[in-house]
Amino acid sequence: MKFASIGIGSVAVAAGVGATAAAPAAAAAAAAAATPIHCLPSGDGYFRAHLAGAVEARIDWRDKGTRCEGESRESPPGVRLSFQRSADGDSNLLFVFGLTGVREGRAAREVGANLTVILQGTDRIYGTLGDSRCTVDSLNQKPLSASKAYRVEARGFCTQPAHAVRGDGAVLVSTFEFAGLVNYDAAPEQSLKDLIPKKMTPVN
Questions:
Q1: Are residues 24 and 2 in the same domain?
Q2: Confidence band (pLDDT; 50, 70, 90) for 74?
């Protein structure tokens, strides 16, 4: 509509330029969509968990098709990691762990873990709202090729359930184990926190 005062010829030229510019963009988007999702560049990421209660599931996600992200966090000091399947995967579950006291490159034991479980596409969010209900037995870190990026492998359990942030219900993640990514160069308290709707954000 904004080209109407310029004339039909100008509209045709503008449309041609737009089509030319749009073609590479569309091709790039299609190529990105066709690129397989992997948790880790090394191809050995995974996430496993046993859920009971409002959500009953045995999770066994391998590297391919699993999205994992991780970053440092400031309050309390530690790291935050998330795990979910890609858009065409077989689950709409998103897991977000906040691990207290984990430092770059260091192994750890008996680490307090704050856990949030989200059923994406719904308003169902379950959170422990603190790190006293779940514990990481052991955690190891291995540097990756990217600067300040690490493969973080851990296993743990929860002794009490994560309760619904709204309404009733609870989910007990009795056991979990994973190998995921933490990038200590990532800006803390940003990307992973944005995964959770702001009106329903548990402390993590």
A1: yes
A2: confident
